[in-house]
Amino acid sequence: MAISTLTREVFDINKLNLWYGDHHALKDIDFPINKKEVTAIIGPSGCGKSTFIKTLNLMINMVPNVKMTGEINFNGQNILSEKTDLVELRKHVGMVFQKGNPFPQSIYDNVAYGPRIHGMKRKVHLDEVVTKALMDVALWDEVKDRLHAPALGLSGGQQQRLCIARALATKPEVLLMDEPTSALDPISTLKIEELILELKEKYTIVIVTHNMQQASRVSDKTAFFLMGELIELDLTSTIFSLPKDSRTEDYISGRFG
């Protein structure tokens, strides 16, 4: 299935259910995601946050014995269709994981990896893409004189920004971030948060986080998950000041038992 970029909505999830074998991990999820907004997903461990975010580019399909029903409409097309081109989907919906995971290659080759996979071969074009992606994540000035040095030689915060640059190099529409700062020190965390606020001018971002302060700082909307259910989705300012569900209030205030 070719991915259209003409429709107005980015994601419109309807009655999404997911099972790991007999375990019902996501239950009747209805979840709209708007263009150029940051949506934070919060909730206790094991509530379905990471499972949900991995459905949005079907990385969840790599897990054995997964079954899904319902619809995940991306730009108006249900990606749960057997006709979905996973390579094309993941070009448009990039992923950044909890811990920076650079390939054991050079800084340059890490960023160029995606464009090469999608057929870009001319060095002049690759140079442009690599430079822009590294500039977009505020890493260019730090690495421009050692682009061909091993990426694994970068600090943890630099590695995470490199992985974001690698995701941006394919020019995605959506960037998924699964606890992208949980392994970082406070200074590196601040840099990533500042980067998220800059990137939302161009990209739609969905971020899973255990950090309530982070969710309140970077997101436009926040979703609270509990035991596989979407309890509440609203403007972040509303979720953190006037949540409609007492379970949301208990979780945010630390009274959740």
Automatic annotation (TrEMBL):
Keywords: ATP-binding, Nucleotide-binding, Transport
Keyword Metal-binding: no
UniProt keyword Nucleotide-binding, yes or no: yes
Stretches assigned to the ABC transporter domain: 8-252
Alphabetical GO biological process terms: phosphate ion transmembrane transport
A GO CC term assigned to this protein in UniProt: membrane
Family matches, as InterPro entries: AAA+_ATPase, ABC_transporter-like_ATP-bd, ABC_transporter-like_CS, P-loop_NTPase, PstB-like
Organism of provenance: Neobacillus massiliamazoniensis
MF GO annotations: ATP binding; ATP hydrolysis activity; phosphate transmembrane transporter activity
Protein name: Phosphate ABC transporter ATP-binding protein
Gene that this sequence comes from: pstBB
Coiled-coil parts of chain: none
